[in-house]
């Protein structure tokens, strides 16, 4: 069974993860640069030594590449957290109303007028376009 301590622990983990994600996002470009861009080494050529010295010709820092790979491998967990968040908000708000929507591009009266004209064209035997994909419903109204 889950109790209040579990809720507190999960809230703490989520808030810590959110702060860490903000910090990481601020430095992501630098990490990518260090991991994958070629850098000039501060090495001088000496006689008899192999040129370039071992490791100088590598691209990027191995530690930065390892961190990038860890981040890349863990990003599917972040996607899952975002999906769980959206599903939870939808559940608590009794529907998908928690998601942002731009709303309809036309008002209800205009939609009703156009649907009436479409039915009239179908009644006269004129061509009526077939809907290929169901359209999103009118926000706050019935689905068409």
Topology:
Blueprint: H1 4-36, H2 62-92, H3 108-123
General description of the model:
With 144 residues, this protein is an all-alpha fold. It has a domain at 4-38 and 58-98. 56% of the residues lie in helices and 0% in strands. It has helices at residues 4-36, 62-92, 108-123. Helix 1 runs antiparallel to helix 2. The longest helix is centred in the N-terminal third of the chain and has 33 residues, at 4-36. The protein is elongated, with a radius of gyration of 28 Å. The model has no long low-confidence stretch (mean pLDDT 78).
- Percent helix range: 55-70%
* Mass-distribution shape: elongated
Order of helices and strands: HHH
Question: Strand pairing plus helix content: what structural class?
Answer: mainly alpha
Low-pLDDT residue spans: none
Proportion of strand residues: under 5%
Helix segment count?
3
Short summary:
With 144 residues, the protein is mainly α. It is built from three helices and no strands. It has helices at 4-36, 62-92, 108-123.
Task: Label this structure with key terms.
single chain; 144 residues; mainly alpha; 56% helix
């Amino acid at each position: 069974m889950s109790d209040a301590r579990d809720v507190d622990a999960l809230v703490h983990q989520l808030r810590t993860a959110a702060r860490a994600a903000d910090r990481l996002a601020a430095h992501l470009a630098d990490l990518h640069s260090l991991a994958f861009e070629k850098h000039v080494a501060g090495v001088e050529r000496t006689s008899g030594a192999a040129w370039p010295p071992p490791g100088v010709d590598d691209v990027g820092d191995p530690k930065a590449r390892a961190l990038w790979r860890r981040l890349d491998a863990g990003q599917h967990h972040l996607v899952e957290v975002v999906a769980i968040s959206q599903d939870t908000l939808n559940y608590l708000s009794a529907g998908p109303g928690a998601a942002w929507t731009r709303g309809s591009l036309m008002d209800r009266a205009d939609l009703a007028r156009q649907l009436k004209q479409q039915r009239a064209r179908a009644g006269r035997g004129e061509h009526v376009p077939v809907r290929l994909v169901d359209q999103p419903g009118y926000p706050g109204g019935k689905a068409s």
